[in-house]
Every structure is written in C-alpha cells, then in structure tokens.
Design a protein that fits this description.
By secondary structure, the chain is α/β, with parallel strands linked by helices. Helices cover 47% and strands 12% of the residues. Strands 1-2-3-4-5-6-7-8 form an eight-stranded parallel beta barrel, surrounded by five helices.
C-alpha cells in the first residue's frame, strides 16, 4: 500500500460560471497545493462539494487529477462514501479501477445507523477493494458519531488504515490514538483541532485552510512531529483567525470566496450553497488581508 503522508488538502472543486466542473483549473489548483506543502489531495470530499456532484463528474476528476498527483509523488484520496452501503461499494470499486491511492469513507448520513450498522457498512466497503480506506467521522454533518470503540473495532481490518476525526471530541480521539493498532493513523479533520490532536499523538491533518496557507500548516505539523510545540503553537495561533473565517459560512463557501478574492479563480459553489452576503464577505476579506497567503495567485497551466 502507498505511504500516506501527514498533510492532505481537502480540495475544492473549481467550477465555471455556469456551475460546470472546471477540470483545467482543478489541475492548476492541484499543482499549486502540492507545491505548497501537501502530501496529497482529498478529491470529492465535503470541501469538494461531493453532495452536488454527479458520479461521472467525480470519476472525471479522479482520472484527470491522477497524472498531476503522480508528477509530484503524492497521493490521491477519493471521497467515495455514501449513506447507502451499495452505493459506497460501487463508487469505491470504480475509483479503485481508475487507480486512486486510497478512499475516504464518510459516516453514513441522514439515516442514523447504529454502531453495529456503522461497523457492517465500513466492513463491507473495505472488503470490496484492496486499496487503503480512511474513515471519516464528522457528526456535525452526518448526525451520527462513530464511537472510539467502533473505530478501534474497524481498525483491525487490514486495509482500514486510519481515520479523519472531525468530532471535536479530544477524549474520544485520544482513546482512538491510545488503542489503535500499529500503523493505524489519526488525521485531524478540523483545522482548529490540528495542534491539539497532533500533540496527543495524531499523525496528520486533512486541511481546508491549507489551500491558502499550506506551507504554514506544513510547518505546524513538522514542528509538532519534532517536538517543538512552542513553534507549532505559534503557527497554530497565527492561523486561527483565518481558520475561523473559513468556517463563518457553510464550507466551502468562505474558502471559494477567499480563493477568488486572492486571484485564484475557482468559481461559484453549487446550489443550495450560495455566495456569502456582504457582511460575511467583508469578514473573510479582512481575515485574508491579515494573513500570510502561501498559495500562488498565478499558476501556469
């Protein structure tokens, strides 16, 4: 299995003005992110607006972005989760055939399965593929928390290699880290929790703010890994105003607005997400103006 790095950017899906997927700009963005600190990309996750993408659009992005990722020796993690086990299996098998490196599998949303239902769901999806699978626990969006016990039970499955933890529950996350088998990794799924999770033994980060501040997020991770928590803390605190601004409205609305504002066009979000109102936009602009932006605003095709 491919070595999965510490920093993944949960990449937005660039859109044209007519809300169609802009594949060429997605390639430019992918290169820019990989050149500013990311070890890989999560494509068609929450930030990538998977909930409003057609399946063929997702597979187009996987196919077109793979060569870009390969050029950089990085990893492409495909968001193939669903609240339907059959759909998640079908999407995962198709993504594996395309050649993606790993899968990100969100907790089934809306239907609120039991912990046993969650276990059987992920067990079935993992059994359908040979590539690494990463769990994604984000109860604020799915309505269901996958407990530490369930995640540790799933960690015994060989190709379930880690979890993106966005519960915000450090006690739960600490239990997962403490009880996980060797090689099972915990990535922070909330930028605001990056340093707390790293400081208790987390492996890395699946980041949103790394679109704009990839080198700084990388620096925070590297400092934490080498035990320099003072430096990691300085970077984390410096990033927090920008992090908060990126979640002042539904993700990825603030991020897309910010990227467009700094001169890296990614187009609109798809309905039902809409552009921020002026009061919200002003807060985003202020946070961006006060921040150090790592993303180049002009990237060659």
């Amino acid at each position: 299995m491919i070595e999965l790095g510490r920093l993944f950017t949960a990449m937005v899906t660039p859109m044209r003005p007519d809300e169609s997927v802009d594949v060429d700009q997605a390639k430019r963005l992918a290169r820019a992110l990989l050149e500013t600190g990311s070890d890989g990309l999560v494509v068609c996750g929450t930030t990538g607006e998977a909930s409003t993408l057609e399946f063929e659009e997702e597979r187009l992005l996987f196919r077109e972005l793979l060569p870009v990722v390969r050029e950089h020796g990085a990893a492409l993690v495909a968001g193939t989760g669903s609240n339907s086990t059959r759909t998640a299996i079908d999407s995962s098998v198709r993504a594996e055939r395309i050649g993606v490196d790993a899968l990100l599998l969100v907790v089934p949303y809306y239907n609120k399965p039991s912990q046993e239902g969650l276990y059987r769901h992920f067990q079935a999806v993992a059994a359908s593929v040979r590539i690494p699978c990463i769990l994604y626990n984000v109860p604020s969006r799915t309505g269901t928390n996958m407990t530490a016990d369930t995640q540790l039970r799933l960690a015994a499955i060989p190709n379930i290699v880690g979890t993106k933890e966005a519960s915000g529950d450090l006690d739960q996350i600490g239990r997962i880290i403490a009880g996980a088998p060797e090689g099972f990794r915990v990535w922070s799924g909330n930028d605001g929790d990056n340093l707390p999770i790293l400081s208790i033994g987390g492996y890395g980060v699946v980041s949103v703010v790394s679109h704009l501040a990839g080198r700084q997020v990388r620096g925070c991770i590297d400092a934490a890994v080498r035990g320099d928590l003072a430096e990691a803390g300085r970077i984390h605190r410096r990033l927090m105003p920008l992090v908060k601004a990126m979640f002042i409205d539904g993700n990825p609305v603030p991020l897309k607005y910010a990227l467009n504002h700094v001169g890296f066009p990614v187009g609109p979000a798809r309905p039902p997400l809409v552009e921020p109102d002026e009061a919200t936009a002003a807060k985003i602009r202020a946070a961006v103006a006060a921040a150090q932006i790592d993303l180049p605003v002009s990237v060659s095709p």
